[in-house]
């Protein structure tokens, strides 16, 4: 007979030290024994084992007055039954003898670290406790067992398991083994679902496929990973599971669940080997998973090969409270069949009255007959709106309890699962001053260095898409080591000079990212290089390559602001080109087919070159990422070796796809931070219910307990569909899968129950939440959603409320208001808002208190200045210093100097900008603000389209000033001119550099057709014009310039208004000047035309918005003699290229308008030079399109109805009218392709 397997074998007891004996003398533990007729309710103060041959004799002192001997039954193993709220682990310490050979097994890593820390402190005080290194959770226990067994199989990690599932899917598809596949089978989430189901089937050691006659609806079946799919889908999943297990068995590998099953079988086949390795003397197994073949083998081994086994299982002696403990019934029956000594742990007597009442009555079958309790000490039910309010309420209670003396490490914040709500809760608690750390298992993609590496991987794999390039340039970790940083960007000459190389700054990367976005290209390294070079050419006005872009001269004859803006954009493009070349040189070796290890080596070299792994944490994250990628290739490598082949190479694109999937799927434990109080005594902890098993805390909080949180919808539906159970015979249940989705694999143990235990698991999980708290339980439910619609609390929360009298809990908060709820103002910003809100009511004490705090002084000072400025703006109907009226004398002198006639040459467009909105002129020309363009490559560029139309019309009308003379016997003048226009459009587009991207080539074709269509529409308008308003005219001047700057910087023929220092110097370009000689007039009459491809102002807009462009052009033609001969003004107007054609503005008295115009311009420029830039736009719809609408706050000005009393006024003659030609009907009747306007509108949309 094997002495190791003899349950009655007497073992030699170790000699106790004096310190241990003293510690036992000091111990005081309750004993309750319900076998052999012994039931002791006193306290043991001294315990000494005496071997008398008949079992164990214990000498105990029942009281100070008397003592007696009693006999304990000879069974050496004990079953300890305790409710969820009892502290069974402490009970074991007080009622059993522990030494260095003892093993302490707890359910979770958090409980493991807690007891290790506690045992370390106890041993330092001289108490006899198990060694801290022999305190294990179940995962660590299986690791020790597996390491002790001979010939272990290979370990398949989480990444390799997902890769194997992919391989099985491909094999099943090729062999046509699948009957029905869900639509989302190609999604990564379905692989994870299969992985979870495979774990369940592996741990339950399932060998047969699901029966086809078995109902598998969600409402009547247990909660399994594939419950939402039908029977056929589950049969397909089991087919994949068979392929999965066959591969593992063939190659002698095991995944995490298979490793546990293999190790459990090793306990039966090699018990002596495991016993020699573990050396189990006294073993405590606390709160193991529900019954199953794995846990049965484990307990059988400890029963036969340990001196004493202490098994703790949840149970309650109250018969009406048996339902939450039903999942452990099978395990308890098995242990009772082994004749373990059975003890019960009484409920703790030091619980608050309300919490003790809740522990004793919640979920009792006769709860409706029990009276409600009138005291709620230790229990709080709070309601608050969803979102931020949940965190504020929790933080308020946590801070209140901490002020009462409860340390942070005795506070647990529990969540049902890791989701957006839990992440937001964590952020809000930290923002309110609660030192909270989360035990959420993060994915690799959440680590900054992995995120940066994934950007680099996508950058190369997808051929440098513009969006990824911009993201890389803005990534703070991808930092180049050299740059050309130009501190004085207003110096246009210095902007194109090579400066010494400095380190790249965040501003350099931001400017480079903006320049790349402005290229309007979809991507491509060479395409972006050419596009950035073109941006430099646009500023220099001459063809350049990338090497010459740094030393070219700026173009001449440009408006100063336009010149400055183009030069600045070119500087940004040059920085972007340098950064892009720097990055491309380092990433060039990546894009090549190679094996997975070679890919990883190349990526590691790039990471080192970019300094991504110089930090220790970054290097650790990279090591995790590399190991995961190497593990992903394990399946392919093993299959290749089995066929006698070398591992295949993969393209960089395939490698990038796998890397992204792995980074999103792989989650890792927080490492050394799994302990909840061992290393962080000054921090509270946020964890899931599964992670909190085995822990006790003085304060337990749980938020977001809305309808469907407890119980879950699936468990509630299963209960309603099958209230008596028994419909899912033969199916397995999970102990922890219904509790949270972050449980480790050791929690996934199935039971052999035949009933539907989903609802019982839900009740057990909620009782664990209640039982974890020893002093304070705080449950927070959402009262309303973010839109204000009311919500219901979870059903179990309502059940808690029914255990107490009404009105014991505070009224829920329906709306988060910092002023009405000052106790929720926990963040700095909320405290400021509340203080200011109270001050508006006249309660200034809070504001004074904050003003004395140096931390709030800066914010309050800025707020007071903002209030002063707002009050000053609101005080008067006139514009003041806070509305754009510059009052500082140094600033006014600087503005007068900048816009003096010696330094600034105005254009009519600039004057119109000032007259339309002075503040817009201030932002654009004084401050030089350039807005960021967010348009993509597919959005039409209307500015470039208008510029091209102007250039085409200029060229054609210069060659053919009289279009009617183009008529020949074989073709009309219109046909000839149409050929000329189309040829010029094609020529201009072909003259550009060749397309640098296929998308650009397609866009150019669309752009060309669009321009040709506009030219055809223009010909119809021109035909109508020549037949009506333009009969007998000649196109005398096209693109007539005045005020052009010479090579030496002097102006050629500018238009000067006024005298001395008040004069205004003007320059401009007139699109077209038509002349006509009337027989009855001695001088020529001329007409000024301005092409408009966008909005065309009406006469009302011309009068009210200060449209001075056309009158100034007419004045320049008349005064500067641009026609070379005396001429008088006939009229002027706009040519609407897109729709109506010629629109004339008739002037009845040009002399009066001319004098008024000159005085008007001088007065407006004088206001400008005096620093008057009020927020006074003449366009009521300016906020719909203005690029500076976020700066001016014009709505406040309009609400106050402010007026600019000194606004310049241009007096127009009363008889002026706008004449609209009848070109629409003529165009539609003569255009063979139908309505061009309709085509254009459809194209634009």
Automatic annotation (TrEMBL):
<keyword id="KW-0269">Exonuclease</keyword>
<keyword id="KW-0234">DNA repair</keyword>
<feature type="domain" description="UvrD-like helicase C-terminal">
    <location>
        <begin position="348"/>
        <end position="694"/>
    </location>
</feature>
<dbReference type="GO" id="GO:0004527">
    <property type="term" value="F:exonuclease activity"/>
</dbReference>
<keyword id="KW-0347">Helicase</keyword>
<keyword id="KW-0378">Hydrolase</keyword>
<dbReference type="GO" id="GO:0006281">
    <property type="term" value="P:DNA repair"/>
</dbReference>
<feature type="compositionally biased region" description="Polar residues">
    <location>
        <begin position="215"/>
        <end position="224"/>
    </location>
</feature>
<protein>
    <recommendedName>
        <fullName>UvrD-like helicase C-terminal domain-containing protein</fullName>
    </recommendedName>
</protein>
<keyword id="KW-0238">DNA-binding</keyword>
<dbReference type="InterPro" id="IPR011604">
    <property type="entry name" value="PDDEXK-like_dom_sf"/>
</dbReference>
<dbReference type="InterPro" id="IPR027417">
    <property type="entry name" value="P-loop_NTPase"/>
</dbReference>
<dbReference type="InterPro" id="IPR011335">
    <property type="entry name" value="Restrct_endonuc-II-like"/>
</dbReference>
<keyword id="KW-0547">Nucleotide-binding</keyword>
<keyword id="KW-0227">DNA damage</keyword>
<dbReference type="InterPro" id="IPR038726">
    <property type="entry name" value="PDDEXK_AddAB-type"/>
</dbReference>
<feature type="region of interest" description="Disordered">
    <location>
        <begin position="209"/>
        <end position="229"/>
    </location>
</feature>
<dbReference type="InterPro" id="IPR014017">
    <property type="entry name" value="DNA_helicase_UvrD-like_C"/>
</dbReference>
<dbReference type="GO" id="GO:0003677">
    <property type="term" value="F:DNA binding"/>
</dbReference>
<keyword id="KW-0067">ATP-binding</keyword>
<feature type="region of interest" description="Disordered">
    <location>
        <begin position="1218"/>
        <end position="1245"/>
    </location>
</feature>
<keyword id="KW-0540">Nuclease</keyword>
<feature type="region of interest" description="Disordered">
    <location>
        <begin position="1"/>
        <end position="26"/>
    </location>
</feature>
<dbReference type="Pfam" id="PF12705">
    <property type="entry name" value="PDDEXK_1"/>
</dbReference>
<dbReference type="GO" id="GO:0005524">
    <property type="term" value="F:ATP binding"/>
</dbReference>
<feature type="region of interest" description="Disordered">
    <location>
        <begin position="539"/>
        <end position="561"/>
    </location>
</feature>
<dbReference type="GO" id="GO:0004386">
    <property type="term" value="F:helicase activity"/>
</dbReference>
């Amino acid at each position: 007979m094997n002495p190791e397997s003899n349950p009655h074998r007497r073992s030699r007891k170790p000699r106790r030290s004096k310190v241990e004996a003293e510690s036992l003398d000091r111990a005081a533990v309750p004993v309750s024994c319900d076998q052999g007729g012994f039931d002791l309710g006193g306290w043991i103060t001294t315990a000494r084992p005496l071997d008398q041959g008949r079992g164990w004799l214990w000498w105990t002192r029942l009281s100070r007055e008397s003592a007696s001997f009693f006999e304990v039954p000879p069974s050496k193993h004990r079953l300890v039954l305790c409710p969820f709220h009892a502290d069974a682990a402490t009970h074991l310490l007080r009622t059993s003898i522990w030494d260095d050979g003892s093993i302490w097994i707890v359910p979770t890593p958090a409980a493991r670290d807690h007891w290790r820390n506690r045992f370390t402190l106890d041993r330092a005080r001289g108490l006899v406790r198990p060694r801290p290194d022999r305190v294990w959770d179940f995962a660590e226990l299986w690791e020790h067992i597996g390491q002790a067994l001979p010939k272990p199989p290979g370990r398949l990690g989480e990444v390799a398991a997902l890769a194997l599932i992919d391989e099985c899917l491909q094999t099943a598809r090729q062999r046509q083994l699948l009957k029905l596949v869900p639509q989302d089978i190609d999604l990564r989430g379905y692989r994870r679902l299969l992985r979870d189901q495979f774990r369940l089937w592996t741990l339950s050691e399932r060998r047969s496929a699901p029966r086809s006659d078995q109902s598998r609806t969600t409402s009547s079946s247990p909660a399994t990973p594939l419950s939402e799919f039908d029977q056929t889908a589950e049969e397909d999943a089991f087919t994949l599971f068979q392929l999965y297990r066959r591969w593992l068995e063939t190659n002698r590998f095991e995944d995490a669940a298979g490793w546990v099953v293999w190790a459990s079988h090793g306990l039966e086949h090699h018990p002596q080997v495991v016993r020699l390795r573990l050396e189990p003397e006294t073993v405590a197994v606390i709160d193991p998973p529900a019954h199953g073949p794995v846990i049965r083998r484990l307990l059988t081994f400890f029963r036969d090969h340990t001196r004493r086994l202490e098994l703790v299982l949840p149970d309650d002696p109250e018969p009406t409270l048996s339902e939450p403990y039903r999942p452990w019934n099978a395990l308890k029956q098995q242990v009772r069949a082994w004749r373990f000594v059975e003890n019960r742990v009484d409920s703790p007597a030091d619980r608050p009255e309300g919490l003790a009442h809740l522990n004793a009555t919640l979920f009792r079958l006769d709860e409706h007959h029990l009276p409600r309790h009138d005291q709620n000490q230790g229990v709080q039910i709070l309601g608050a709106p969803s979102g931020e309010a949940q965190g504020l309420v929790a933080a308020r209670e946590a801070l209140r309890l901490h002020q009462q003396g409860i340390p942070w490490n005795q506070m647990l914040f529990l969540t049902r699962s890791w989701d957006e709500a839990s992440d937001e809760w964590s952020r809000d608690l930290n923002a309110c001053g609660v030192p909270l750390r989360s035990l959420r298992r993060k994915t690799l993609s959440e680590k900054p260095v992995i995120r940066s590496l994934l950007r680099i991987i996508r950058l190369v794999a997808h051929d440098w898409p513009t969006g990824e390039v911009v993201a890389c340039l803005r990534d703070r970790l991808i930092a180049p080591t050299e740059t050309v940083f130009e501190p004085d960007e207003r110096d246009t000459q210095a902007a194109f000079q090579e400066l010494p190389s400095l380190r790249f700054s965040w501003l350099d990367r931001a400017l480079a990212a903006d320049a790349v976005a402005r290229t309007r290209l979809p991507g491509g390294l060479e395409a972006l290089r050419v596009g950035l070079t073109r941006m430099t050419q646009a500023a220099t006005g001459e063809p350049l390559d990338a090497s010459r872009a740094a030393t070219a001269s700026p173009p001449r004859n440009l408006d100063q602001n336009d010149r400055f803006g183009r030069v600045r954009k070119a500087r940004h493009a040059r920085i972007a080109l340098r950064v892009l070349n720097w990055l491309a040189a380092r990433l060039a070796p990546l894009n090549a087919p190679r094996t997975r290890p070679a890919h990883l080596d190349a990526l590691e070299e790039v990471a080192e070159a970019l300094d991504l792994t110089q930090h220790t944490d970054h290097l650790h994250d990279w090591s995790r990422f590399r190991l995961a990628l190497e593990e992903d290739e394990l399946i392919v490598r093993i299959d290749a070796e089995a066929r006698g082949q070398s591992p295949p190479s993969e393209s960089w694109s395939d490698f990038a796809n796998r890397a992204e999937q792995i980074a999103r799927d792989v989650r890792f434990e927080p490492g050394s931070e799994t302990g909840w109080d061992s290393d962080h005594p000054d921090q509270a902890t946020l964890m899931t219910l599964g992670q909190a098993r085995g822990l006790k805390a003085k304060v337990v909080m749980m938020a977001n307990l809305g309808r469907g949180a407890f119980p879950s919808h699936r468990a509630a539906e299963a209960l309603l569909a099958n209230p008596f159970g028994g419909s899912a015979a033969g199916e397995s249940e999970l102990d922890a899968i219904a509790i949270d989705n972050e449980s480790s694999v050791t929690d996934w143990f199935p039971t052999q129950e035949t009933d539907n235990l989903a609802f019982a698991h839900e009740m057990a999980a909620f009782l664990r939440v209640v039982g974890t708290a020893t002093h304070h339980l705080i449950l927070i439910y959402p009262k309303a959603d973010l839109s204000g619609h009311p919500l219901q609390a979870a059903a179990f929360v309502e059940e808690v409320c029914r255990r107490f009298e009404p009105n014991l809990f505070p009224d829920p908060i329906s709306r988060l208001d910092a002023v009405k709820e000052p106790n929720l103002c926990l963040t700095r910003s909320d405290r400021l808002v509340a203080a200011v809100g109270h001050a508006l009511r006249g309660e200034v004490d809070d504001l004074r208190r904050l003003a004395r705090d140096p931390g709030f002084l800066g914010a309050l000072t800025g707020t007071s200045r903002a209030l002063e400025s707002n009050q000053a703006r609101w005080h008067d109907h006139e514009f003041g210093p806070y509305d754009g009226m510059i009052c500082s004398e140094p600033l006014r002198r600087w503005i007068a100097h900048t816009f003096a006639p010696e330094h600034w040459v105005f254009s009519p467009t600039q004057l119109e900008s000032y007259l339309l909105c002075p503040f817009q002129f201030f932002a654009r020309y004084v401050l030089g603000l350039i807005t960021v363009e967010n348009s993509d490559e597919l959005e039409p560029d209307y500015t470039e389209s208008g510029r091209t139309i102007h250039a085409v019309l200029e060229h054609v009308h210069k060659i053919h000033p009289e279009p009617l003379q183009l008529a020949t016997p074989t073709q009309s003048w219109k046909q000839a001119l149409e050929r000329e226009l189309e040829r010029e459009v094609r020529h201009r587009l072909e003259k550009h550099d060749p397309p640098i991207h296929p998308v650009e080539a397609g866009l150019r074709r669309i752009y060309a057709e669009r321009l040709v269509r506009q030219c055809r529409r223009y010909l119809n308008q021109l035909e109508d014009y020549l037949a009506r308003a333009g009969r007998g005219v000649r196109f005398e001047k096209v693109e007539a310039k005045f005020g052009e700057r010479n090579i030496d910087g002097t102006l050629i023929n500018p238009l000067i208004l006024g005298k001395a220092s008040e004069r205004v110097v003007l320059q401009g370009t007139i699109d077209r000047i038509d002349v006509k000689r009337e027989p009855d007039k001695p001088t020529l009459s001329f007409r000024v035309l301005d092409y408009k491809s966008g909005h065309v102002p009406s006469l009302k807009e011309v009068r009210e918005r200060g449209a001075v462009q056309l009158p100034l052009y007419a004045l320049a033609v008349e005064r500067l003699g641009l026609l070379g001969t005396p001429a008088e003004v006939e009229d002027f107007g706009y040519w609407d290229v897109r729709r109506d054609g010629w629109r004339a503005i008739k002037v009845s008295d040009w002399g009066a308008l001319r004098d008024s115009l000159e005085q008007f311009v001088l007065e407006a420029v004088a206001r400008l030079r005096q620093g008057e830039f009020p927020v006074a736009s003449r366009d009521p719809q300016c906020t719909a399109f203005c690029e500076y609408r976020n700066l001016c706050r014009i709505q406040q000005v309009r609400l106050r109805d402010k007026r600019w009393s000194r606004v310049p006024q241009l007096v127009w003659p009363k008889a002026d009218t706008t004449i609209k030609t009848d070109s629409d009907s003529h165009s539609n009747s003569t255009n063979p392709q139908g309505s061009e306007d309709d085509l254009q509108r459809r194209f634009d949309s």
